[in-house]
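Thread amino acids onto this structure.
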């Protein structure tokens, strides 16, 4: 089975529990478990289930395909998971934190423009010209060009 990295600590402590309408998906191959787990997290934590220990505790497994099994819950102690990642120690109040280069504050909901991008962009009143020299406004509907035959009332 695969779990989210955020839920890793909770799963180790409380076990796996499925939502009411679905079950916990279990597959025998690690690659298949990783593929299923990537649907919920970019880097899922793979949990190996001990089926014999689960059956001793009364867990029922249901076949849901050739190599897919479902269970409603897996109690703690019936699976093995990688150890929790070590947390970085928080700095004490007296210790200095590695300083990063401060960014200038930006007003909320705004962005800065790059002058080079503005110099190459066409102006606000820019209108394309055709080979014949006529102006073409892209927002205006062209009545002279029909994609099919003109309707009888326009002839």
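Threaded sequence (155 positions):
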């Amino acid at each position: 089975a695969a779990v989210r990295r955020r839920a890793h600590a909770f799963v180790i402590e409380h076990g796996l529990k499925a939502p009411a309408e679905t079950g916990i998906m279990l597959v025998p191959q690690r690659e298949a478990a990783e593929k299923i787990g990537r649907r919920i997290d970019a880097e899922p934590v793979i949990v190996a289930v001990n089926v014999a220990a689960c059956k001793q505790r009364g867990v029922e497994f249901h076949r849901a395909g050739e190599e897919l099994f479902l269970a409603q819950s897996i109690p703690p102690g019936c699976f093995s998971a990688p150890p929790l990642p070590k947390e970085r120690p928080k700095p004490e109040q007296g210790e200095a934190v590695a300083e990063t280069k401060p960014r200038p504050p930006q007003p909320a909901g705004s962005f800065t423009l790059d002058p080079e991008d503005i110099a190459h962009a066409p102006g606000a009143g820019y209108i394309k010209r055709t080979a014949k020299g006529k102006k073409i406004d892209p927002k205006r509907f062209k009545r002279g060009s029909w994609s099919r035959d003109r309707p009888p009332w326009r002839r």
